[in-house]
Every structure is written in structure tokens, then in C-alpha cells.
Protein: Bacterial extracellular solute-binding s, 3 family protein
Organism: Mycolicibacterium hassiacum
Amino acid sequence: MPAEKVDSIANTVPEKIKERGRLIIGVNIPYAPNEFRDPDGKIVGFDVDLMNAIAATLGLTPEYREAAFDKIIPSIQGGTVDVGMSSFTDTREREKIVDFVTYFEAGIQWAQRPGAGIDPNNACGKRVAVQATTIEDTEELPAKSKACTDAGKPPIEILKFPEQDAVANAVVLGQADAMSADSPVTAYAIKQSNGKLEPAGDIFDAAPYGWPVQKGSPLAESLRQALEHLIRTGTYEKIAKNWGVEAGMIDKPVINGAVN
């Protein structure tokens, strides 16, 4: 799904990045179907195809730099990375230190082994796997676990893994009762599990994904305009449908669109 440079949008890119000719992108892998490696070791996914199209629109070559998820925003603040691309939920807390350009909407979805009967709203005493430092790890599960202990029930045992692949695997192997992840990620894990995983409950807490950039950087507006262009031309929809994530498409990107 090739995209071409649009001069009027490319001209808005900060001079330093324009002169370099490369857009340096921080990414944490794997988080399929958004960013992961194919069998040949190439970084692929919905986020990757979309960012490649964004970079092309801006007349830049994308350069992906792998990092731990919790190191990406500090590297943006420090100026070693231009933009983050790792299924970041745009939150008011994160907006205090970086700006976001919204590009997708995801909720949270749990998965379980078939017939396990796990209820995300009543998981006291259960073992739930998550990727460390995600919203599910830092906000969702601690709040649910506190509600359990406040009611005199056992806490949720939160099992943290550095990579998303290990999260799904823990459930399949019976090390965890369930997993919690962003809805497109859980849907993809279920699809890839060959019947070993199924949804547990509905999608909830929909919130925007965003690309983080330095606070006050004009790059945010460049990215926003590039995405508006891709939405208008239909490229965005083609990319989303190609990865089966069209349920989360948005029609208007904004800068700092956190809902909570």
C-alpha cells in the first residue's frame, strides 16, 4: 500500500528531521498484529504499514529502533527518537510529558482457555497475565485487584511478562487463568492460538492509541496532517483491513485526544 510524498505536508516537518531525511521511530516488539517480526525477521504489522505510509507522505525514510516499552517515551523526551510507535494508549498522565497524535481506537479484551468461565469484572483470586508497563498492568488490573481486597476478597495475582507473546503462552500453558491486553492484540492472539484461547467477556474501556512526540514539537501537526491525508485517500482503511483491525479505525486524528 504505497503512499507518496505530499510537499505541502512534508514542508511542515521540523528542519532537523527534514535535513536528516529519516524519521527515527521507537518500537517495542512483539505486539502482534500491530508490531512484530515475520519469519524472515522483518518488522511488520498494522502500526508498521501505517507509519511507513506516514513517513512516505512526509518524504522521509522510516528508521525503526527497538527498545523496551517503558524506555520509548524517555528516549523521545531525550531527543534520541522522534516518535513512538508501539500501541501507546493516549492518556492524560502521559500527555503531561509528551504530545500524542491519535490514529486508532482500542479497548481492553480478556482471553481465557476455552470454557474457563473467567469474568473480567469478578476475577478476585485469579492469575491474570499482562505485558509489563502496559495500561492493563499499571491501571486496569491494580484497580480491579484493589476493589477485590476492599471487598474482603483475595487480590488478583498479576503475572507480568516483558513480551506479549509470553502473555498469551502463559494462558495456553495454564500458568495463568486469563490474559488482559488491548483488543486488537487479544483478537490476534485468539486467532493465532488455533482454538486454545477464546474471549473472556466483551471489549471495554475504549481509548485512543497515539504516536508520542516531544512536548510542543511541530512534528505532531505534521503527523496529524499526514494521517488525515491517508484517511482521505483510503490508504488508512486499506492498511487497517489488511490486518483485520478495521473495527478500531478513526475518522479524525487529533493532537492529545485522551479520554482519561
User: Anything to note?
Assistant: The longest helix spans residues 135-150. Residues 55 and 62 are 6 Å apart (CA to CA). The mean pLDDT is 95.
